[in-house]
Amino acid sequence: MTPTSLTSDLCIKCNICTSACPVAAVTDLFPGPKAVGPQAQRFRDPDLPSPDKSLDYCSGCGVCSLVCPHGVQIAEMNAIARSRIVERDGLPLRNWMLGRSELLGKLGSPFAPLSNLPLKIPLLRKVAEWILGIDARARFPSFARETFRGWFKKSPAAERLMGMQKVVYFHGCATNYYEPRVGQAVIEVLERNQIKVAMAEQNCCGLPMQSNGDFESARAYARGNIRKLAPWAREGYLVVGASTSCTLAIKHEYHAILGIDDPDLELVANNTYDIFEFLEMLDEKGLLDTRFVRRDEKVVYHAPCQQRTHGFGRPAADFMRRFGFTVVESRADCCGVAGTYGLKKEKFDIAAAVGQPLFDQIAMVDPQRVVCDSETCRWWIESHTGKKAVHPIEVMAEAYRGRKM
Questions:
Q1: Are 58 and 122 in a shared domain?
Q2: Domain coverage including residue 358
Q3: What is the mean pLDDT of the chain?
Q4: What is this structure's pTM?
Q5: Using the 8-state DSSP alphabet, how is residue 134 labeled?
Q6: C-alpha dihedral, 393 to 376 to 277 to 201, nearest 10°
């Protein structure tokens, strides 16, 4: 029996989770997190797959777990139940592909920009929609010709950083293969603060596989990261990541959802920080370089679902205000995409409807840019609003870059 299954008895059927669920609010195909979560959990045989396919319409945003007044791990429970459907029915080819972001990056990056062309040809996208069920309207990021790790190996930053605090940077697939600029901004900010950065061997965090119900593969990837990161943690390094979903996977989901119980995981998880969680810790200790160049800019900041699940507040918004920004915080609980959820044909319109309040707010505020900690949220927001979306660490690097060295 998993740790999350034990919490179903704490549910008092108050329906707060259902009233807060962004998916149940826009479609009747999903009866709500309570119905497919703790209510259904009481009737599930722990040794048999769940027959309830409606829970596949759960996006996994985690809002239900956040709002539950009794601490029921509803989103985690639903993710585990979804894996039982995969055990019973098998893993669709589409879900297998969407879960392999690292493999796709390894195949696509060496051949960019040529490998980006198929994603931009409408006819090929319609064929993929018909064969695989990947919506032709869904935007995919472009492969970068040079990976972040390739850039780092050539960067003088790899040799110059000799500070007392030591960190291992967990860059994730998105930064390595699609957005090297985010990793470059991370290194720039850490270098300003005299942080010694190591680039440990690592693999995909496994979250895309987990989200698509492929728990066996997700566990293999999770154990790979635990094995690669634990020696660094024992040497006193902190693990710092700028992909808030990757760091949440290590800190929370490897144990709570995948059920991994390993002393090395506990060691790594206890020493893992999201980048702004780490920077806020430096600031509280008086160790952060705060010589920013103030800039007059209006932005909408959307704190993604995974970032809020960390539970450390919204330090990125606080830092941007210190840079002189006018920060309008998103009123939306979820942008809708939820990783790969919104890329699927049967869920694209649902995901777009979930994100519509955010898109409307962005249109009303009309900011110069949107700022968000999650890569998939940034890509989704850009495709639905036409506004440039960046990671807050890029904004912080700009604030440092403006002052003379």
A1: no
A2: 298-401
A3: 91
A4: 0.92
A5: B
A6: -90
